[in-house]
Specification:
binds coenzyme A; 2 domains; 11 strands; 6 helices; about 230 residues; 7-stranded mixed beta sheet; two-stranded antiparallel sheet; Aminopeptidase
Length: about 230
Amino acid sequence: MFLEVEASTVAWDAQGHFKFLTCKPCCALCIIPLTHFALPTPSYTFSDLKRKMVATAETANYSIQLDDLTPNNLGVLRRINNVVLPAQYSDAWYKDSLNVGQLVKLAYFNDIPVGAIRCGLETPSLTKGSSNGTDSSAAVAKIYIMTFAVLAPYRGYGVGKKLIEHILEQAETMFVKEVYCHVWVENEDAMRWYENVAGFAKGEFVAGYYKRMTPPGDAYVFRKKIE
Ligand SMILES: CC(C)(COP(=O)(O)OP(=O)(O)OC[C@H]1O[C@@H](n2cnc3c(N)ncnc32)[C@H](O)[C@@H]1OP(=O)(O)O)[C@@H](O)C(=O)NCCC(=O)NCCS
């Protein structure tokens, strides 16, 4: 039997085995039943437990699967975004997510929905600058990453990598020349991740890009050229 607790707390069975871990911000979405961790004392920190979980998950050969977005699982995308990201997206935006084909994906960790990416295709604009060749960056199709989120307890297991690799594959298939996104300047983890893990390059600084933040939040553009 599993009880629900917050991620920073632990529970033990009568033999002192760690029984379960739930994800604090999203306990309605996921319960990780981690049976039979033989932990000697209940004084483990959450990091210790997470490391232990990685080791166990590796030996248990965990699976990460991607799935298409459908009307039936649209709520999963909304839930993950709401839990992880500071911005709220409208119903129309979610409805439109059903029309972007492979540019949206949900990720499952051992069948538990834990991550999602949602992008948009930007087709070349035939503005004055691009049509006469002076603005070459506007003249190529690009994929823009609108939302990208993995629930905190499941980070570091390769879920984000699998999602971004999928989008980069799509970019190649679609002959898109660039994948890019904005990252809030305070989100140092994400900036490191884009550079070190996903191979994106840090681009220009955009003052006040996140207008709904108070005060408006600055961003850096991160981009990856597709050969
Ligand atoms: C950014 C994010 C999507 C990455 O997802 P993730 O599932 O944790 O990433 P992965 O597990 O696939 O990363 C795997 C690799 O990244 C490394 N890694 C994880 N976090 C890292 C970080 N902050 N900096 C550098 N490397 C990192 C892991 O060690 C691993 O490396 P390895 O393959 O060499 O072992 C996730 O951290 C997240 O949802 N963050 C909050 C929301 C957010 O900032 N979204 C992006 C804003 S646009």
